[in-house]
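Support request, please re-run this one:
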Amino acid sequence: MNLLESIRERAKNNKRRIVLPEGTSERTVKAAHIILQEEIADLILLGNLDEIARLEKEFGLDLSKAEKIDPRFSPKKELYIDRLVDLRKSKGLSREDAEKLLVQDIYYGPMMIFMGDADGEVSGAEHTTADTVRPALQIVKTAPGISVVSGAMIMVTRKPELGHHGVFVFADVAITPNPTADQLAEIAICSAETAKVIAGISDPKVALLSFSTKGSAEHELAEKVIQATAIAKAKRPDLNFDGELQADAALIEKVGQKKSPGSPVAGFANVLVFPDLQAGNIGYKLVERLGDAEAVGPILQGLGAPINDLSRGCSVNDIVNLVAITSNQASAGK
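Re-run finished. Output below.
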């Protein structure tokens, strides 16, 4: 059983309620059909009910087991409006403006999670990343002790001798352009949890990457990584972190142990934390394209509830996989 099969199987064994705001998207309803047939999750589709029914008929789908809600006419709309006004009163949100937000599927979904009516959300087939993340931050906010949202990619490589049988977690690849040392430490901690919950890596070995290894170069960029490593170790002494490490020192035992002798991470890393978004995004795409690796994600980290963002170029299968991942995150949080 490969990693994605394992993720789907875990989701089936502990089904969660996942809301799909883009219920009138062709790819979303096709994915919903597969998810329901395979019993990966219980689904809530948001959108115009007539349009959902039309798509179901047009493509020969069976969405009968999904709950379908048009936010404009939901019997819980007034309750949700009251709670959103209360939640955002410090920002001066009026009841009229709250109603304008909650008739939008992208706001209604996170509100369902906040109210306990759903366990997670997958969006992004039609919406931008900003459209998905903004309502999530306004409503479910970040997780306790975390101030930054990041995006992790699970990389399944053809190098079983490296990482966790060839599997790695890369972060941040999607959200925060230039994290501070504190934020980088939080990203490292969240990435270790993603490794355990999603990638099946029971013993995350987290390398904080740089162009320098253990003082081989002196620069403020390397110093930020050194500080982040110290912060992560102090916050989570139960996890294995090492940095600053160059990529080869993180991956290759001979190199890593020469430069950081006795380190449980150097040469054995299975979680790679990049110093900024440019490096992370470039890095995962190089590994994917030149190394013929499979990239799964991105998986949003640091939010107070499992809410994940698709690429607008996603396939139906991408949606199915991300729903399974989101369900796994929700199960871990219970």
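The CA atoms of residues 144 and 236 lie 14 Å apart. The chain has two domains: 3-141+304-332, 150-295.
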